[in-house]
From TrEMBL:
Protein name as catalogued: diphosphomevalonate decarboxylase
High-level lineage: Bacteria, Bacillati, Bacillota, Bacilli, Lactobacillales
Class of enzymatic activity (EC top level): lyase
Keyword Nucleotide-binding part of the UniProt annotation: yes
Similarity section: Belongs to the diphosphomevalonate decarboxylase family.
Amino acid sequence: MTQAVGIARAHTNIALIKYWGKRDKDLFLPMNSSLSLTLEAFYTDTKVVFDEELTADSFFLNGIEQSKTEIKKISRFLDLFCEYTGERPFARVESFNFVPTAAGLASSASAFAALALAVADALKLDMTRQELSTLARQGSGSSTRSLFGGFVEWSMGTSSGDSMAHPVDDADWDVGMLVLAVDTQEKKIASRVGMEHTVQTSPFYPAWIETAKEDLKAIKAAIATKDFEAVGQITEHNGMKMHATTLSANPPFTYWTADSLLAQEAVRRVREELQVPAYMTMDAGPNVKVLCRVSDMKILIEALSAYFPSEKIIASLPGPAAYVLSEEDWEQSKIHFAKGSQG
């Protein structure tokens, strides 16, 4: 081949049962299985061009050429596919992130899921999504779930070959999420660093692993019966337990800010005052996500607007599985990003 091109879009996902901690740092094997909801509102579009005339890999994010360190990460990820193709030509990778990067909104999940699907499309690989998720996982653990839509489980597995994601439910029964984007700046402590420190030093961590297993069984049962309130209660408790492990690490740390605490209190007050089921969760970042019914979104946004500017409250329906884009779609995506970056 002289040139092979693949383009894909993948949406972010927010874990309801958290992935927090690796048992194998090189293969990104998790300490526990997890479950997420894919979101429609945030996504990454990625184009990969393998070209025999290129002399090195390159990586452009949001139109900006990235550092040698970031390019090395991409190169290592692309090398994973050599198991299926033999040697590969160098590649030019371009991505547009329609989600704030490194702010606890799962931008790496959508990024590596989109890249994995784009590579598979370019190289015409005959792989199932589950198989592809084992490769995406090695770029970003949570990206394994962004290859699917709705509620998705990432089974921890016993090895690299079976630590993969699979769909659980389309979440098409009045399920939605509000994101209280209180701070979209890059976080000070990377998820990878926070995870490792917590696993090594938190006395609460073993209890987290055991209860996370129980939470996963419970939430899957609640999803099967479409028991929204049970799903929400399990989600909120699991998220708070994860953050308790960071507070019990030595030295302690937290991803919460003053605005995170304000957002948490706002959700509790609104839930009590309106008697509307709305349940919060937080990943490794300051922003608060609110699992709610789509039919309750309008009233919740109005109530939460008393605490935060409306532009910081982002509503999302469940997102679809990752999918391949056409060249025309890609050109439209670039135009859309350019308009958005210009305000």
